[in-house]
Design brief:
By secondary structure, the chain is of the alpha+beta class. The protein folds into two domains: 34 residues, no CATH class; 32 residues, no CATH class. 44% of the residues lie in helices and 16% in strands. Strands 1-2-3 form a three-stranded mixed β-sheet. Strand 2 and strand 3 form a beta hairpin. The two termini are 28 Å apart.
């Protein structure tokens, strides 16, 4: 997996430019004394991270993903009205 680098801003610059940073909708690493202290993320990125963590914490979902990756899972239609897609 490649390491992603984000633009860095000091806390003071991030504070003064917060409205523009929010409009730009790009991840930004915020630093204090040259050390990372926070990350500003677009809401879509944040929600994707939470969804991924939920999926990784679900043993049944992980079993299904491993089976699919190994080619041991047959195709079946998903129920899009079900929170767990009928799995």
């Amino acid at each position: 997996m490649s390491k992603t680098t984000y633009p860095m801003l000091t806390l003071a610059k991030a504070q003064s430019g917060l409205p523009k940073l929010c409009r730009d909708r790009q991840p930004v690493l915020i630093t204090t004394h040259d050390k990372p202290v926070s990350v500003l993320l677009p809401i879509e990125d944040y929600e994707a991270l939470i969804e991924t963590m939920d999926l990784l914490a679900n043993p049944e979902a992980m079993r299904i993903l491993r089976s699919a990756k190994a080619g041991r899972l047959k195709y079946r239609a998903l129920d899009l009205n079900d929170e767990n897609f009928g799995l």
